[in-house]
């Protein structure tokens, strides 16, 4: 099967899950490429805005061909930016077809706006499209406003869902969470993100006899990730267990604001890491902690458990994760409860890390997700007249 992946955002600005799924599909014997139009913003990085290529390029990423374009956005002007982004994707698709032929299926990541572009392409070329959804209501509220919303984007994206061969939320809870914008009258089924279980494999940790217990937090420095709550919780933990450390990594964690917030004994900040560096940090850690206020399906949780360590996080994670032995959850915005559960985890280390790792392999390995997507895409092809 010839599959074209279209992400709404992509490396180096997130979107690694698209590459992971492309690799999983290629592992099933499919012909898979990625068409990526990356929206640049002066506010996010003036240097990148000015220096990144101005023409469409092709490059190989982990043995996947990526057709890549960087689009310059107009500050604070959303609708023209969206229209320009979608038109560019349509143009890139026309050029792609000339070079590689029509794909059998288009796989868009997030309805906003890759899914919408896929819908327009589907109508023009009679190609089925599937949307994997990663964005929660909290992510959408910043642009659409609190529901019920009459924002111009909502009707376009609702239609995108309704006309898709299938919508694949990475967690079942997303359907209810976003129904206030999109409704629920569309075909959907849950498909997990992919975990690179070869990279994030099980590994036993060194004995704790002569070293501190290490928590790590893998999250961008963002209000939704609850770093203020984590800071309060870790401060409480340190008053009761001196031999505990906290390693922090993610975009923005090396900022002055984050360093000021976490300026306490036992905290080490690593900033933004690539996935290989993330794996090494996990192998130096004994548990993952996330104080998230909003979480769809955290790859960090799955990757940590895949390496064999437990997770302390909040009730925002999907029920499928909350029901596993390796995931300990507390209420959102409750620093005392978070501290208490962190202490519980570091004082009771007789857990079965191999069982955590095996559960992730059965749930989210490239082989499992690649096979599941292959079945869904084959059904989408059959549904097309």
Description:
Keywords: Transferase. It comes from Prevotella aff. ruminicola Tc2-24. GO terms for molecular function: glycosyltransferase activity. This is Glycosyltransferase involved in cell wall bisynthesis. It is globular and about 65 Å long. It is an alpha/beta fold. The model has no long low-confidence stretch (mean pLDDT 94). It has helices spanning 16-27, 46-51, 78-100, 111-125, 137-144, 152-163, 173-182, 227-240, 256-261, 275-283, 299-307, 319-322, 335-347, 353-364, 366-383; strands at 2-7, 31-40, 57-61, 64-72, 105-109, 129-133, 166-169, 213-218, 244-249, 267-271, 287-289, 311-314, 327-330. The protein has two domains: 2-194 and 365-383, 3-Layer(aba) Sandwich (Rossmann fold), CATH 3.40.50; 213-363, Glycogen Phosphorylase B (Rossmann fold, 3-Layer(aba) Sandwich).
**DSSP helical segment count:** 15
**So, CATH architecture of the largest domain?**
3-Layer(aba) Sandwich
Q: Which regions contain 5 or more consecutive residues with pLDDT less than 50?
A: none
Question: How are helices and strands ordered from N to C?
Answer: EHEHEEHEHEHHEHEHEHEHEHEHEHHH
The helix content, as a percent range, equals 40-55%
Radius of gyration: 21 Å
Give the overall shape: globular
Largest sheet: 7 strands, mixed
**Beta-strand content bin:** 15-25%
Distance between the termini: 17 Å
- Taking strands numbered 1, 2, ... along the chain, how are they ordered across the largest sheet? 3-4-2-1-5-6-7
* Count of structural domains: 2
Q: What is the number of beta strands? A: 13
InterPro entries: Glyco_trans_4-like_N, Glycosyltransferase_grp1
Domain Glycosyltransferase subfamily 4-like N-terminal: 18-198
GO molecular function: glycosyltransferase activity
Protein name: Glycosyltransferase involved in cell wall bisynthesis
């Amino acid at each position: 099967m010839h599959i074209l992946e279209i992400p709404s955002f992509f490396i180096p600005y997130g979107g690694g899950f698209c590459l992971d799924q492309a690799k999983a599909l290629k592992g099933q014997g499919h012909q898979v490429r990625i068409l990526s139009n990356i929206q640049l913003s002066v506010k996010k990085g003036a240097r990148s805005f000015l220096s990144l290529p101005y023409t469409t390029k092709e490059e190989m990423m982990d043995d996947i061909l990526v057709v890549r374009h960087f689009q310059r956005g107009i500050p604070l002007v959303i609708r023209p930016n969206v229209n320009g982004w979608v038109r560019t994707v349509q143009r890139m698709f026309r050029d792609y077809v000339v070079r590689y032929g029509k794909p059998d299926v288009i796989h868009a990541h997030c309805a906003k706006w890759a899914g919408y572009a896929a819908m327009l392409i589907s109508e023009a070329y009679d190609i089925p499209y599937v949307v994997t959804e990663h964005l929660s209501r909290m992510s959408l509220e910043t642009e659409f406003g609190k529901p019920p919303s009459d924002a111009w984007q909502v009707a376009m994206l609702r239609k995108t869902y309704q006309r898709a061969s299938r919508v694949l939320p990475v967690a079942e809870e997303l359907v209810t969470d976003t129904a206030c914008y999109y409704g629920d009258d569309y075909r959907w089924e849950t498909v997990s993100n992919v975990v690179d279980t070869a990279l994030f494999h099980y590994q036993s940790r060194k004995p704790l006899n002569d070293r501190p217990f290490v928590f790590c937090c893998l999250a961008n420095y963002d209000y939704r990730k609850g770093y203020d709550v984590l800071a309060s919780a870790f401060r409480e933990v340190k008053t009761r267990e001196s031999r505990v450390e906290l390693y922090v990594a993610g975009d923005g964690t090396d900022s002055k604001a984050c360093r000021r917030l976490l300026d306490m004994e036992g905290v080490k900040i690593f900033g933004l890491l690539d996935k290989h560096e993330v794996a090494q940090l996990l192998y130096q850690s004994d548990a993952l902690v996330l104080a998230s206020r909003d979480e769809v399906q955290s790859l960090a949780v799955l990757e940590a458990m895949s390496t064999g360590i437990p997770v302390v996080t909040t009730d925002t994670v999907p029920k499928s994760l909350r029901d596993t032995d390796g995931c300990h959850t507390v209420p959102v915005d409750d620093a005392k409860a978070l501290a208490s559960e962190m202490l519980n985890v570091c004082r009771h280390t007789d857990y079965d890390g191999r069982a955590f790792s095996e559960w992730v392999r059965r749930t989210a390995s490239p082989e499992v997700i690649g096979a599941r997507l292959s079945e869904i895409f084959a059904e989408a092809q059959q549904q097309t007249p």
